[in-house]
Structure to design on (651 residues):
């Protein structure tokens, strides 16, 4: 029986100066390199395939399969790009990972690049995290000096250059083709697919784009074996992942556990909902994943079960809201976010998020009528599946799920002539026992 | 004012980091901000000339990304997260208090040029909500009072530390790091803040680990 929490990626975060090469190597860091170099690149890909690792950036696509799509007979250079643009509201796992242990990511980049036969790799990190960028820059510099990067790494004959690239503020660049546009020095607007990046990505060359946590998991698979990784988690959602609890819980923070743990188990570990309050709604994996309620406390947090419950596992960003929170205010704010971050390329998203905001704002003020709920759902219907990328789809998730679960609360705004909640009661600094 | 030779050299150096020079544009614009205090027409022209693209192309990029500023930014860019979770946890009240205290609106700078206030989107620190960023360093678990204290200390010229990082530098110095010219502060601050470690701490107490691996 696997333990409830299984620290792998977080295991060295409490080490003295964990971010340094000395600390990382003292704990066996960079040992996956020689193991990987002793294998054929295709065998590294197969190990990742066999482990069952699925993308940790939200979509859950099998990582090894993605690597296998790279056409090795294509004469152009291959590239690995790490998506470190962590910006999905509620998501806060990659940033602490890169701050505490940037070498875990760098080691993963080297093994992964070797597997797909890339000689240049990039870490595209959002610009708004200065200290994380410092730690990444330092880690890359240290890795070069130690011979883990550069020419003929560990005498293997394999060369790799790694560039840390800071973004400049755009949620859309978390979308992989928009990220590539940003990395090519352009406005971050998504590309039409196909061709997929595996065939024509960065500089129209075969490119793998993976989330930070996916790449950081690779050294552990090489070190301990695909079977070891697959021994954790559920049948179709294998391995461990970092679960991020935030909001109205006693002890918010990072909990690394096998996929399939439930929110009830996580809340027990986190000391429960803050004192004197109860769970009202939560997101399983960021604001783009439909809201869930207390009735979903025992849903296993794996890709299949959360999907079956009507939401998505996403990034395991568990934002927890208690009964002092107005769901209409919460959803309006997310809607404003999507409107602000819409890149403007496609009409359903550019215009649709604008209209959603208008309608939501009217309802939040207690204006409008019950018909506006149907209008909202109709607007969502005109965006979902019709937008150019997943941003538009994501914008509809909080709205349609909140109307499904909390229709009465929308109506209460109309009968009350405004928001019936006191926003002060939901704050972290509200006196204990404050009521909405 | 035109850019000096050193800046031209560094802009070329950034472009040379990449297989294709245009990939350097985002960090190049960060460097322009560190030198000029904002995106200037001179900075745009320099990027365009080095990359062999039009100024309109550079302008199109500079206007797309929110970290690039057209108006001068103060010594300290203060960003209050008002995305849903932080807003609910107190970010809205913190932002209101700072606007009142500093007598500025969103995306405006105090008359003395020290503080530019802006509300920002989720900055990936939700377990430390409500969160404020100063020059893109984390100021975790803020209250309206603590936020006022931070801006007062900054305006008084006192040394202020990130709650999970180093001494705060100026906005221009921060932009230089983002352009890929590291400063000497990587070793300051802890590896992780308290919330980042809660799960690990419980695992240690209970003796929980990942299974033994193959050797």
């Amino acid at each position: 029986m696997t333990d409830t929490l299984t620290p792998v990626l977080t295991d060295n975060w409490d080490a003295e100066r964990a971010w340094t090469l000395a600390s990382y190597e003292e704990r066996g860091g960079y040992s996956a390199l020689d193991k990987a170099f002793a294998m054929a690149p295709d065998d590294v890909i197969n190990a990742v395939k066999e482990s069952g690792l699925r993308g940790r950036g939200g979509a859950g696509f099998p990582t090894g399969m993605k690597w296998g799509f790279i056409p090795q007979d294509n004469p152009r250079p291959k590239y690995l790009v790490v998506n470190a643009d962590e910006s999905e509201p509620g998501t806060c796992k990659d940033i602490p990972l890169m701050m505490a242990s940037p070498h875990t990511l760098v080691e993963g980049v080297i093994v992964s690049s070797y597997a797909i036969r890339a000689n240049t790799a990039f870490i595209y990190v959002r610009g708004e995290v200065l200290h994380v960028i410092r730690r990444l820059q330092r880690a890359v510099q240290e890795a070069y000096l130690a011979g883990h990067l550069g020419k003929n790494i560990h005498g293997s004959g394999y060369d790799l250059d790694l560039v840390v690239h800071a973004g400049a503020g755009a949620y859309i660049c978390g979308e992989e083709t928009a990220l590539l546009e940003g990395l090519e020095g352009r406005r971050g607007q998504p590309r039409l697919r196909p061709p997929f990046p595996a065939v024509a990505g960065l500089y129209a060359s075969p490119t793998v784009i993976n989330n930070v946590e996916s790449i950081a998991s690779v050294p552990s698979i090489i070190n301990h074996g695909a079977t070891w990784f697959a021994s954790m988690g559920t049948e179709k959602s294998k391995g461990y992942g970092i679960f991020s609890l935030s909001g109205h819980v006693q002890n918010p923070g990072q909990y690394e556990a096998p996929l399939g743990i439930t929110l009830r188990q996580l809340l027990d570990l986190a000391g429960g909902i803050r004192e004197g309050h109860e769970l009202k709604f939560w997101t399983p994996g960021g604001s783009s994943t439909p809201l869930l309620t207390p009735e979903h406390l025992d849903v296993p947090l794996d890709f299949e079960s959360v999907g079956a419950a009507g939401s998505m596992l996403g990034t395991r960003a568990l934002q927890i809201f208690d009964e002092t929170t107005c769901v209409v205010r919460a959803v309006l704010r997310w809607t404003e976010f999507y409107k602000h971050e819409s890149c403007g390329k496609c009409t359903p998203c550019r215009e649709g998020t604008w209209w959603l905001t208008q309608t939501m704002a009217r309802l939040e003020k207690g204006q409008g009528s019950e018909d506006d709920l149907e209008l909202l759902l109709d607007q969502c219907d005109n965006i979902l599946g019709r937008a150019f990328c997943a941003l538009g789809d994501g914008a509809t998730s909080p709205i349609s799920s909140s109307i499904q679960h909390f229709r009465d609360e929308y109506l209460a705004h109309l009968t009350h002539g405004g928001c019936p909640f006191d926003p002060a009661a939901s704050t972290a600094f509200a006196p204990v026992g404050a009521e909405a | 004012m035109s850019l000096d030779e050193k800046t031209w050299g560094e802009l070329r150096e950034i472009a040379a980091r990449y297989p294709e020079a245009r990939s350097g544009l985002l960090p190049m614009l960060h460097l322009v901000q560190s030198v000029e205090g904002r995106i200037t027409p001179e900075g745009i022209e320099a990027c365009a000339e080095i990359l062999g693209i039009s100024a309109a192309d550079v302008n199109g990029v500079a206007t797309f990304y929110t970290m690039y500023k057209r108006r001068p930014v103060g010594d300290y860019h203060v960003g209050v997260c008002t995305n849903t979770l932080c807003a609910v946890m107190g970010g809205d009240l913190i932002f209101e208090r700072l606007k009142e205290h500093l007598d500025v609106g969103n995306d405006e700078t105090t008359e003395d040029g020290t503080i530019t206030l802006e509300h920002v989107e989720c900055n990936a620190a939700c377990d430390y909500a409500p969160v404020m960023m100063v020059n893109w360093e984390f100021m975790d678990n803020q209250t309206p009072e603590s936020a006022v204290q931070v801006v007062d200390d900054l305006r008084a010229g006192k040394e202020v530390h990130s709650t999970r990082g180093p001494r705060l530098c100026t906005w221009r110095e921060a932009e230089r790091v983002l352009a890929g010219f590291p400063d000497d502060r990587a070793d300051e601050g802890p590896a992780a803040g308290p919330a980042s470690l809660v799960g690990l701490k419980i695992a240690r107490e209970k003796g929980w680990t990942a299974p033994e691996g193959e050797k």
About this structure: Chain B has two domains: 5-62, 76-171. The radius of gyration of chain B is 20 Å. Residues 5-62 of chain B form a domain with the Arc Repressor Mutant, subunit A fold (CATH 1.10.10).
